[in-house]
Design goal:
The protein is an alpha/beta fold. The protein is built from 9 helices and 13 strands. α9 links the parallel β12 and β13.
Amino acid sequence: MIAGLKDIIDKFDTFILDQWGVLHNGGEAFPEAINALNLLKKHGKKVVILSNSGKNSVFSYDRLTESGISRDLYLDVLTSGDHMRDNFNSGKFKALGQQALHFQWEEDDTVLEDCGVQSVKAEQASFVLCCGVDRGNVEAYMDDLTIAYRKKLELVVSNPDLVAMTPEGNLKTCPGAIAMAYQKMGGKVHWHGKPQKRIYDMCKTLVGGWDNAVAVGDSLEHDIAGANGAGISSLFITSGIHADKISGQDSIEKLARQYKVSPDFYIDWFKQ
């Protein structure tokens, strides 16, 4: 366990930060996180935000600014949504067609234009595009998923997270939970973002490379597993989505074994 970034700051030239659960929970930025970002800037560290968000990086710039994190405190942002858009634009999903059964957040259709597809009903769909959970829970999607599975449609998910923290401290369902349900049915799923190794390769290119990088995040399944798979160090934030299962070092080690990951460091909050 470390007391703050000061304990490890000299070990790394690049800090790869998760957004939700590390910098904010959808509302105002955590004051300690802003102080930590200022410390990294003072020491000349490369800071990149790697977020499992179905939105693109431009949306993240705006959200971070609104939360109180100024643009000069980080080098850039890369999202799982960017990863997905890159795959569509490179032609990887050309064989899936252009008729998408689209699951979204609050009638946000911008991703359709970004990916060159259109939204249709389940009966007309050639694939499933899972970008949001505006119906509230996975159960509300089971009828559509059953139709999709019967048609042997493949599912593309923009955000692999199962849950995320809300500003009130609760957990909300994320698109990854729908994708996981479909995969358990036997459906084929195309995952993006953490822990996929490809997004770490994209991240390394984005920042111009690194000598020693550390990934900071609150999800053992995504942030820590992704860092392990990419061969970089990791710092686990214990106050995030696993907080209700953590009571001390023994519980952290038990969780790590459960998720088959190995965080190098852990801390309660992202702080200097």
